[in-house]
Design goal:
By secondary structure, the protein is of the alpha/beta class. It is 46% helix and 15% strand. The strands form two sheets. The chain has a seven-stranded parallel beta sheet with strand order 1-9-8-7-6-5-4. A two-stranded antiparallel sheet has the order 2-3. Helix 1 runs parallel beside helix 3. The protein is globular. The two termini are 12 Å apart.
């Protein structure tokens, strides 16, 4: 039997409190955990502060390196010793969120997804102990990537313990900064210069270490990039079994690379519903997906098992009711296309 087309989210939801996280989790589980056409996930509510954002949440998982919050953002403080207060808070908040997930979904038997920030986006956003981004220091970025790989291994094991009945676990590695890293477009701390270009072989090798950690822990690694110029070939070459992209930002090469991924049996999660503005109708979204497949010469039935529909990016900037409607819409689209 052919696997069904599925629906999922990128991760983030609106709100600024623990109650908002609980409501986001209820939406995700209520809309996406009911059958095999939904892929539920651990929601993120970054409006609760830096410790709940994608960078802080991931640094909370990293036990090999310590980090703290500065006015400019997160900064590494050295190798593991006594974690700074902010990092401990990030770790505690994530554990609290996962406790809520375990309480509500410990009997979930289907697939489940969790998100972590990727090594290049971390390197482009986290500072070194002596200033400027980790991206500026080859050794520091390698050390950060290695610490992240260990954190991913532990995180997958923790999810398995909390969701013992779950089937496939998907680890979504968020890399929105990767195109800028490859293009040498990440600003230096002064703002007057740009960090040097990272060449594709090094970018692939570093990402591959984190991807491999997820796979070796028994999870399926996907990489998400909602920026223009997403290097789909590089992501797949690094071992990603799924790529998550914004359809509106794909160029001609991106469309072709997505088609190659689907034909090869990998997953393409297609960002098809805008994160702001009017929510389209189910018919409009279904028609757009079918037009895209027709443009690529792909048979919808043949590739349905590898296709996932998502929002274009996270929903933190939406109103709560809109985020709920988008999640409901994607589930309905998956059923219609299936």
């Amino acid at each position: 039997m052919t696997a069904p087309l599925r629906a999922t989210g990128i991760g983030s939801f609106p709100g600024d409190s623990q109650r908002d996280y609980d409501e986001a989790l209820a939406v995700v589980l209520g809309e996406l955990a009911a059958d095999e056409r939904g892929l539920p996930f651990v929601p993120e509510v970054p409006g609760r502060g830096p410790t709940a954002g994608m960078t802080g949440r991931t640094l909370g998982l990293v036990t090999e390196l310590d980090a703290d919050l500065q006015p400019e953002g997160w900064r590494l403080t050295g190798t593991s010793g006594a974690p700074a207060l902010d990092q401990r808070r990030a770790r505690s908040l994530l554990a609290q969120d996962l406790d809520g997930l375990e309480e509500r979904a410990s009997g979930h038997t289907g697939a489940f997804k969790v998100q972590v920030t990727g090594p290049w986006t971390l390197a482009a956003s986290v500072e070194r102990p002596r200033g400027d981004k980790v991206l500026a220091d080859h050794g520091a970025r390698r050390e950060l990537a290695q610490a992240l790989a260990l954190a991913v291994t532990d995180h997958v094991a923790d999810l398995r313990r909390r969701l013992p009945a779950a089937g496939e676990l998907v680890v979504q590695i968020d890399e929105p900064a990767l195109p800028a890293v490859l293009a040498g477009a990440v600003p230096t701390a002064s703002g007057f210069g740009r960090h040097r270009t990272v060449h594709p072989p090094e970018a692939s090798e570093t990402l591959a270490g984190v991807v491999a950690a997820a796979a070796e822990a028994g999870a399926t690694p996907w990489v998400h990039c909602c920026a223009a110029g997403v290097p789909i070939g590089l992501l797949r070459g690094a071992g990603a079994r799924g790529v998550m992209v914004d359809l509106d930002l794909l160029d001609a090469d991106g469309h072709d690379a997505a088609a190659e991924a689907l034909e090869a049996g990998d997953t393409v999660a297609l960002g098809i519903v805008p994160t702001t503005g009017e929510v389209p109708s189910e018919g409009q979204v279904v028609e757009r997906v079918l037009r895209w497949l027709d443009m690529l010469g792909l048979d919808p039935e043949a590739v349905a098992g590898g296709l996932v529909v998502t929002p274009a990016c996270g929903l933190a900037g939406s109103a709560a009711e809109r985020a709920r409607r988008v999640t409901e819409l994607l589930r309905s689209v998956a059923r219609s296309l299936g």
